[in-house]
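re: ur question from earlier - yeah i can do the single chain one, its not a big deal. heres the input i used so u can compare w yours
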Amino acid sequence: MNKLDELLNARDLKFEDLEGEEQDNYFEWLNLLDEKPITIEDVRKCISEQKTKIELELADTDEFEAFFFGVFRRANRKHLVLKAQLKNYLFLELFLESEARKKQMIEASLDKLTKMRMRKKTTPIM
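and the output i got, formated as tokens:
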């Protein structure tokens, strides 16, 4: 018995009780339940891909657009939106990496501490 059948049984339902579209939904829900859960690495990969996509599009977008026969220029809205999106993804990436950075900083500090203690032990006192 799968998870979905357990959920149905808890509500006194069976697969046979479901009608046409409900049975289609049942199979979609089965697929959803069988998928592996999203991990932090999946999110990091997605953010990295989106950043690259935005960077490429940003490179192809002019920062300013001319109007009134090229006499005046104004900021290109698309360029501003892309820059804002890129900043958001950068902040998300920093947020996800903050735990790893904290761990690295602590490990680096502990490494320095152990090196200092080793030096004190090996340094002769005169």
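Residues 24 and 110 are 57 Å apart (CA to CA). not sure if urs matches, ping me
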